[in-house]
């Protein structure tokens, strides 16, 4: 058709990186994962754009006519959109796509769980790089909800030596992200490494700590970038760590330490790390824990040490009620209840309270890093959270500019 715009499609699921611990995929499972990936892509790229149109043309005028006033808050937008068929369809499909992704991942993993557990046992046995502590308590912020609609969340063990939570996460994340996190799921870490190389070119950490590391996908690039550093990946989930350590061993990363530990109660000496970081972790904790962990991070950093975090940017004074509504959708319907509160916090203020000096803090946008040549030339990527990747800097008229991963952090001075 004349004037028809070429439709960009997500990369196919068979481009997911294969390693010895990744579950085997049948033809039908591959087709199912491809369908879910394309559904997410379509919802993000096409269907979601209709929500704003429906809000401006239908929901907003109807609300303001009935209420006798203008839209003033995110709650007003939620009320206005609650009966909007366009929004209802998009929201139901988006929630359904996450449930489908969990069902597809779990069914794939559980049909071969005994073999996966045995393989993990092979890689993990007699290794001093995996340390599990059965007395680790699951914090309430994690035990109170099944994050991302994942039954049992990250920590539930179905059997002895269980790796199902980690295997499910590694298997299905590609569907959720549409390939935007790279084929290894490590796009955030690769972005951080590039940022460090350009912004802190002389930084050569000897000891690195990743809090809330999960399966360690965003730890291994640090081992590539700083091969002489000691690297510690801590998490409260034994199934994630068992899988993550076995995955790392299978991929020939032999020195990364995986440790079961609550990030709020780090069992390390003061001033013992050069670099402490998190990746998309804070929005799954509570406000109290966030503040306590920042204080702990400050304590554990050596003078001159660096902390850096990839997260969703917080709201600013000019973030519209509609944008707040969209960006908080996951808090209400994707089992991420702490997200909405985190969006309202000023991380610079919180870091200052934890002990960091304002002049040593930074916020930045960093372009996502994808390995070249891993996807077909016709494929594109579309993060379901692209609306979060908004500009930090402003032009002369005060408008936002730029997009990319949101980073914040600080050097420990004094």
Summarize the structure.
The chain has 414 residues and is α/β, with parallel strands linked by helices.
- List low-pLDDT spans: 390-402
Strand content: 5-15%
Mean pLDDT figure = 91
Most strands sheet: 8 strands, mixed
How many structural domains are formed by the residues? Answer: 1
What is the CATH class name?
Alpha Beta
Count of helix runs? 15
Shape estimate: globular
Strand order within the widest beta sheet = 1-4-3-2-5-6-8-7
Order of helices and strands: HHHHHEHHHEHEHEEHEHHHHEE
- Give the C-alpha Rg: 22 Å
Helix content: 40-55%
Would you tell me the structural class of the helices and strands?
Answer: alpha/beta
Going by CATH, the homologous superfamily would be Vaccinia Virus protein VP39
Q: Judging by the overall fold, what is the CATH architecture?
A: 3-Layer(aba) Sandwich
Q: What name does the CATH topology carry? A: Rossmann fold
What's the end-to-end separation, in Å? 65 Å
Number of strands: 8
Q: What is the chains' assembly state?
A: single chain
Report on this structure:
With 414 residues, the chain is α/β, with parallel strands linked by helices. It has one domain: Vaccinia Virus protein VP39 (Rossmann fold, 3-Layer(aba) Sandwich). 42% of the residues lie in helices and 12% in strands. It has helices at 27-47, 49-67, 74-81, 85-110, 113-124, 140-143, 164-177, 187-199, 220-225, 238-250, 287-300, 321-327, 329-333, 339-343, 347-354; strands at 130-131, 207-211, 230-235, 257-260, 273-279, 301-311, 361-366, 405-411. It has an eight-stranded mixed beta sheet, with helices on both faces. It starts with 26 loop residues before the first helix and ends with a strand. Mean pLDDT is 91; it is low at 390-402.
